[in-house]
Amino acid sequence: MSQSGGGSWQQQLEQTKQRLKSLEKYQIKSNQPTIESATEYINYETGSFSSPLNFADRDGYQTRFAKEAEYIQSLQEIIDTGEYFIHTLYTYRSISRALPQVQAESDNKGELYRKFFDVLEPEIKKIRDLLAFHTTSVKSLTKIIVELVANEKRKEIPSDSLFDYMIIVLDTILKLDALKNMKAAINNDMATVKRAAQFMNREGLTQEQLNFLDTKSDENASLYAFLSQNNSILSGLKDSLIKNAGYEDIIILIMSRCADNFEAKQYLFCDQKHCLLRVLVFCMYLIDNKDTAKNNYLKKIGSSSLSRFYKIFKSYPNIPLYGDMTFSLKTVLKSCPNLQEKDWVPDREDQLAKNFLLINHIAKMRGEFETFTRNYKILINKIKKLQSNVTTTNSSGSIDPVYREKAKLMSEEGLRYISQWTSLVLEQAAWKYSHPKEDVEARILKQRLESDQEQNIELLEYERVVRFNYDKEERSALVDAISMIKGLENIMLQQNGLMAPLIRSQIHFELQNFVQNDLQEMLVYTKTKQRPIFPTVLELRNLAGDWINEPPVEMAKQKKKNESAINDFPKRIVGPSFTQLHMIRAIISTLYSDRSPGMQSKGLFSKKDFTDSHVEILQEFYKKTFIWNYLLNYSTSLRRASDLSDLWYREFYLEISKKIQFPIEMSMPWMLTEDILKRTNSALMESIIYPIDIYNDAAYKALFTLQRRFLYDEIEAEVNLVFDQLVYKLSESVYKHYRLVALGILLDNKLRVNVEKDHLVKTNYNYTKSKFDVLLLQKHINILGRYVDLNYIITQRLNISIRENILQLIKKFESQEITGIVELEVMLESVKITHQLLSKFLNLDPFESVLAEVNDSTSVVSFENRITRHIIEELIMDFFPNFCFNTVTHRFVRSKYTYAESDYKRENYKNRGLYQFVTSSFSEAFTPILDQYKEFFGRPHVESLVRLVGQESLALIIESCITYIEDKLYNDMSPYIGALMEALPPRITLQPAAYKLIGVYSYFKAQFRDFLEYEDLKPGVFQAFRSIGNCICMLLTLDSELMPQNISTYTSAAPFLGIRPLTRQAKSKRIETLQQEGESDELNRQSSTIDQDLTQLQKLTDLYVRKDIDRTPLVSTIASFVNDPQVQLSIHAPELSKTLTDQASRAVKMYQPPRELLTLFKQFLERMSGFLSNVRESWKGTSPPDRLQKLDSSHEFYRLWGILQFVFCLPPENPTEPTDFEVFGDGFFWAGCTIVYLFQQQLRFDAFNFSDHVVNVSNISKEGMDILTPFLNNAHIIRAVNNRVFNTLRNYYPLPDFVAEEFTPPVDEEFLKQKVVATISASTDSGLTNIRHRASLFTSHHNSPTLNSYPSSSNVLAPPQLDNIPPPPQL
């Protein structure tokens, strides 16, 4: 490439980098809070946990450890193959259990067994391969140990790295032996194969298969012996080693290495820690021999080392082995005959349990988590700030070395924290596996949870160790620990792109600093002292050095180490390869080892290869390099350190329980999730997703570690079920919480404060804080590689919950009386507030649309809905016939006794607690308040009714009420009124006060005896009047509620219509107009009717109503906007804007206030007057032409109404029976008085009302007052009710005044001879006698015919004529 071409390429590269860097300012991250573990879209690692080439590149490094690398290569192959068989054994499921039973007399028995063999043979071949692997691995390991024994004799010490690999191999063998012992399914399948070999057809089998089926072959015998004997793998290795002398020395070195690494914490992951413990015990088993004289290994170990080993054994009696399997040190140590049990058995197991239970460590974990995350975030912010100021391409190398070192140290610290916490979690699980719940206690807990009263319930072992083995506090601590593990992993993985280059740069810096500075001094020292170790040190320098030019040839000693010398090497963002780092650590471990010949004192004047300062530098560097390989694999190390998949796996317990799978109630992730859900508003609610992440770990392990698809399918199936349950229960908990918040808002503040101050009340009605807010913001949760929008799913569930809640409330209202409408409104308001609170986080459907949908009011051509239908049904079927109206309180109450006969029944319905008051505390708070509204029906109920049904459906209710009145008038009352009008006495006279109170009362009672004895009077007539009157009062109450709303509507529309308050000039103009319009003669003004007054009022209203609609503010503003040329240019659809002015004009016309007062009740009275016009001829009655002279014989309706009111005043004969007021209420009077008023008979009714006449007489005559007190009290009440009814009717619907009629005096001389007698005469003895005789006539009155047959006028009861009877005596 030419120079110009190279410059152009460099320029393009720089431009590309600048463009990529500009993308950093775009925020691609979601703003949702992070409450789950990290998710990696792309994973790229610069290192590995094992040699990717299996040490094939060792020849590139010319060191004396190449031979040792061959050993390590062989050991690595054993490890890899052993891992495969570990996975095979752990996931092995019995196949023979799923095969059908073959009948002995079956014809195709041979074919079936051949099929069985074809199915089982691939799995059995894996077991045969395991046997072969066992044989080869034992030989290879024995060979290496024998060679190491020989090297020890030649003073050729192996490196510590070789011992590390041998530890892993021994742990692999230990796991294989434990898994083989555990899997009884293998023996069952082998037995099935053996049985099948006896009957199946062997055609087509290979020679290898035939040899396997041969029961006499050596391979077959070896396999059966291998499977039938426990600990056959361990025994095989021990038997192989014991044949070689000196192997104990190597085993003891391995034990020392295990103890050293364990005490120095030279491990990172949980399995590495427990591997050291398992191998330490395994090695103790390998060197133990019954022949103590021949193999006295205890003396070789030494008392100090034994004490150290025993201390470790006592601290960890049970540790995890693999998955859900545990390793008991006690089991292995008991097989060592030379060990005394008292030396390694724990002293106090209860004290030891505190070390394993997570609840005793959680406080320390929280402190470490908070401190580390705070410092880590501070460091990240500082590094980002420094990077923003760096413009060079090598930004990581340009950052201050102090921050690079801090980044590496904090990453190491975070990794160790995560690994330590994961170890605590898994060690607690192992402790629980080893210490199950007592059988009796577990059965009691299961009966309590499942409400099972059976004594012989099935209790699985897995339930004892998992489901019932964790109490509430331990589950909380476990959730908290998982949250910290996954949370810290997420925090650190998010900074992978930032921290990984800094870590690699710092590792390169530390390595070159050691090689080119610290190692340089050692080279000079060993060369000067002519130590034989000099070539090895030189090899180390050549192996790891990265020089600017060439490595220095002269070994000159540096005078002083300064900054320029330290930094005199390349700065690269790269770490050593796996083989390179292994070689470096192997060489360093042999340089300062105490067993190295150069480090052993041979005499008084002999010197070691290195000074103490050199040894200290080497040891420090060796310990430092342990973590390098894990730091170079940053994301993989974090994932492995936080792996909690073993909390889900349960293959061991499935094997011993002989179950295919356990239900989710026994699954640890769901147990923790469900426990959080039960604590509705706990601090753990934000951690509810972290336990679900255990499924991600388990699925990752199933696919990439175990490589078993069927395990992943089981995990996926369980996750689907768990997630459905989670969404269902979480949605229910969320809805429950916000319903409580809404109810708390609706609850009166004073009541809530007073109740909460009461020390006896433990309920808090203030639910303002919520732990669900963070959960509701989650829009992408990673579950098994799928991203789930939790926000959307919960939104769907809550939409269903809101619909169901409204439906339940409406159903409950439909099962109640109409008085439950207040409760319905309160509950719907609480649901609406709940909807508003949830809408801050969720995109819920509009509440009005949901309510309309559930209420069946979505039709555009019908105003009927479920609430309206039930209201109408209740009004007609129950409310009007069975309630009593009180004119004073304007309330309806249910009558104590009803005459209505109806089959109307409501469906019994019990609402779910979640959809009503949610909790018992809110039920206790709201129920007493709402129950008060169920005792009556009044203005609060009407207000709720108007708000619930709206103006559209309200018209349907009003029309139904009016139709009800029309039906009652024509069908129910008309036959009764016609018969009663015919049954009126021919003459009813208002007797003078001379008859005394009791005489007047007795006279009327005798006159109305036919009515009193009429059986259908109260069940038919009174009931009909009550029903109509209740309906009239209902309409009046509705009108009084609608009027303020209409006024408010007009007031709100006034500014848009140009209506303003009157000024002084407007007021004066109004007065002048009134005077001009009112100028007429005095006669016309006196005789002016109400219609003329309304006409004048209508003319005056023109001062308020704008006739020039085009000049109203609304129309003028829109017109000016539309007609503006600039606006027309910016409007995309000008043809639509042209109609805006017309639409505004129509709106102004619609909202213009009416010219006259048009109320609902007035319109109703007009319609009712129309209804009465059809029956006016038969109801209104007739009067004689000379009605002024013969009013006593009038047959008009008011006379009948007076009789009915008189009968109404009569108290019941039995004092225990309810009065007519209690049975019929004031609705009776509203109906009759309205009919009288519309017939224009009010004045005559007031003048000739019978009960009022008795009351007037009582003001003069007091005789019989004690007897007639109930009647008089009722009459007084009725007079007040009549006056109120007529005044109300007069205000709403004024009738024209009567025109004075002229009567010509009679010319009959007999009339002139009439003598006017005073109403009260002197009390003479003869008068008293005559009065007594008059009273006796009343009491001995003849029987009257009943009104059931509607008799003609000739048969109507004729009351006695009183004209010729002398005044009655005083009683």
- What is the makeup of the main sheet? 2 strands, antiparallel
* Overall pLDDT: 81
Strand content: under 5%
How far apart the termini lie comes to: 145 Å
Question: Based on helices, strands and strand pairing, what is the structural class?
Answer: mainly alpha
Which sequence of strands runs across the widest sheet?
1-2
Could you list some keywords that capture this structure?
mainly alpha; two-stranded antiparallel ribbon; 63% helix; 1371 residues
Protein architecture, described:
The chain has 1371 residues and is mainly alpha-helical. It is 63% helix and 2% strand. The strands form four sheets. The chain has a two-stranded antiparallel sheet with strand order 1-2. Strands 3-4 form a two-stranded antiparallel sheet. A hairpin with a 4-residue loop joins β5 and β6. α18 packs antiparallel against α21, α25 packs antiparallel against α26 and α35 runs antiparallel to α36. It is elongated, with a radius of gyration of 52 Å. The protein starts with a helix and ends in a 32-residue tail after the last helix.
Task: Characterize this entry briefly.
By secondary structure, the protein is mainly alpha-helical. The protein contains 60 helices and eight strands. The longest helix has 45 residues, at 109-153.
Write the layout of secondary structure elements.
Elements: H1 3-22, H2 66-90, H3 109-153, H4 160-182, H5 184-199, H6 207-213, H7 218-228, H8 232-241, H9 247-263, H10 270-287, H11 297-301, H12 303-315, E1 318-322, E2 325-328, H13 329-333, H14 341-344, H15 349-356, H16 362-388, H17 395-398, H18 401-434, H19 439-450, H20 461-467, H21 472-494, H22 496-528, H23 534-544, H24 563-566, H25 578-591, H26 612-625, H27 628-632, H28 634-641, H29 651-657, H30 668-678, H31 689-705, H32 709-746, H33 749-757, H34 773-776, E3 781-783, E4 786-788, H35 790-814, H36 821-838, H37 847-854, H38 866-882, E5 883-886, E6 891-894, H39 920-932, H40 939-982, H41 996-1007, H42 1009-1012, H43 1017-1057, H44 1064-1077, H45 1082-1086, H46 1090-1101, H47 1113-1123, H48 1125-1130, H49 1134-1137, H50 1140-1151, H51 1160-1173, H52 1176-1179, E7 1181-1182, E8 1195-1196, H53 1197-1209, H54 1220-1224, H55 1227-1238, H56 1242-1247, H57 1250-1258, H58 1265-1292, H59 1309-1312, H60 1325-1339
Antiparallel strand pairs: 1-2, 3-4, 5-6, 7-8
